[in-house]
Amino acid sequence: MFQFLKGLVGGTATDFKTLVTEGAIIVDVRTPGEYQSGHIKGSLNIPVDTIKNKLADLQKKNKPVITCCRSGARSGMAKDILSNAGITAYNGGPWNSLEKQLQ
After folding, report:
1. Domain 16-102 annotated CATH 3.40.250.10
2. Which residues are catalytic?
3. Per-residue model confidence as pLDDT tens digits over 8-28
């Protein structure tokens, strides 16, 4: 019963720290202004409305991508765009929460 419920809500939590240690790229999909007000060190800033233009660059890196934004909504959209392009992608949600998970 509990396994069924876990499946409904997304299963197990993603270990973002391990993904980054193993080479995953963090892509912050907020606007440049939002990014400059604070971001995860080493992250790339690719606004969600331009991410389709960067698909080839991200595919060449051949690494998983963790998306983040202010609330998790735009990063969810970006994750779907990346996944549909064949890139292994994870929605990291709000950048400041993701940053805490990586410490």
Report:
1. yes
2. 69
3. 344 457 899 999 999 999 999
